[in-house]
């Protein structure tokens, strides 16, 4: 074999690997949980995450499964569903992340995640976070604090929505009461 052929084969292999790394970097840079990491911390993160492919209709995880980690949608769409009646709660697109509570505890998943199309996901799992905290506590703390901030914001929004729903239910009950008294 000629050295040109060998160089072109290895060049393609390494070029493809570098393109994949750059693609993962781009997705992770746009993920809020990792936004406070410096360049070195970020570069180390890129090498501990996991890329996974799913076919349309394939379950990523099932409601009730133990939480193992979070996923970031690199390509495609994922449907988050409640198993009772297969009710879709939300459809997520590229760049979205889900399952992040599993980084903090292993409680059962509150919903199922299903690939709504062919998709490529980046997984960041609880053991990865613990390993990162052990090797670089400052980077781990940055991720955990950002995660707490995001969860706190989502909880505030949920509380506001719950309060609005309660007000609407009270208003409707009052309307029904007024209609039935006529």
What key phrases describe this protein's structure?
elongated; 4-stranded antiparallel sheet; alpha+beta; 182 residues; Jelly Rolls; 49% helix; single chain
How would you portray this structure in words?
- This protein has about 180 residues and is α+β, with helices and mostly antiparallel strands.
- The protein is about 50% helix and about 20% strand.
- It has four helices and eight strands.
- A four-stranded antiparallel beta sheet has the order 1-8-3-6. Strands 2-7-4-5 form a four-stranded antiparallel beta sheet, with no helix packed on it.
- Helix 3 (about 125-135) packs across helix 4 (about 135-180).
- The longest helix has about 45 residues, at about 135-180.
- It is elongated, with a radius of gyration of 22 Å.
- About 20% of the residues are buried.
Short description:
The protein has helices spanning 3-29, 39-46, 126-135, 137-180, and strands at 50-54, 59-61, 69-75, 78-82, 87-92, 97-98, 112-115, 119-125. It is an alpha+beta fold and 182 residues long.
